[in-house]
Amino acid sequence: MITLQVNGDDRICEPNLTMIELLKYLGLNPRLVAVEYNGEILHRQLWENTIIQNSDRLEIVTIVGGG
């Protein structure tokens, strides 16, 4: 197991998850979030190839529609 920080909280997950797998593991719809990964916005096209590492820091924002 690895430990990472998600929105300021420590979380534990399986090693070797991709960003998409992590988002699903956290119960989030990957189509409805934006991700900052270790201080940088991570573009969606990189999510499939980004492997989550121990001590990574993520800020995940849910996109909300409305008017």
UniProtKB/TrEMBL annotation:
InterPro entries: Beta-grasp_dom_sf, Mopterin_synth/thiamin_S_b, Thi_S, ThiS/MoaD-like
Pfam annotation, one family: ThiS
CDD domains, A to Z: Ubl_ThiS
SUPFAM superfamilies, sorted: MoaD/ThiS
Domain of life: Bacteria
Family annotation (NCBIfam families): thiS
Protein name: Thiamine biosynthesis protein ThiS
Organism: Pseudanabaena yagii GIHE-NHR1
Species lineage: Bacteria, Bacillati, Cyanobacteriota, Cyanophyceae, Pseudanabaenales
Gene (UniProt): thiS
